[in-house]
What we know:
Elements: H1 3-6, H2 10-25, E1 37-39, E2 44-50, E3 55-61, E4 71-80, E5 86-91, E6 96-98, E7 102-104, E8 114-119, E9 124-134, E10 138-149, E11 152-160
Antiparallel strand pairs: 1-2, 2-3, 3-4, 4-9, 5-8, 5-10, 6-10, 7-9, 10-11
Amino acid sequence: xxxxxxxxxxxxxxxxxxxxxxxxxxxxxxxxxxxxxxxxxxxxxxxxxxxxxxxxxxxxxxxxxxxxxxxxxxxxxxxxxxxxxxxxxxxxxxxxxxxxxxxxxxxxxxxxxxxxxxxxxxxxxxxxxxxxxxxxxxxxxxxxxxxxxxxxxxxxxxxxxx
Length: 162
């Protein structure tokens, strides 16, 4: 029996199914690694992501193929391109870096961890992190999180050369 006969609005519900499934897969984080493209103006590899609430993140990586012992610099820029403030918690100094790559840092940047409050339309948040790479040659996922709440992260693959 067709769904439209069981439920008068069945046709409408079936028409909305692809949108509902797409919305269910839009989490704040990115489980599958994405490939940044080289931005010659920035002199770094760049990955852009926009979210439905108006927040937009641009991630810059100094290299995608460091050798063990090289320095990898990571910069995240979050800009609010929406029209309404978004309540959020974000990293103030550094970023949340999740990877099997170990980052040796030369010094502590600051003692603060995060800040919470509204991000107004047009506001921009910037955080920088990275360090000297300590890892065996291979390909490693690297998840970078700037926004803690709502949780947003971007994942890239870094190829460590011998």
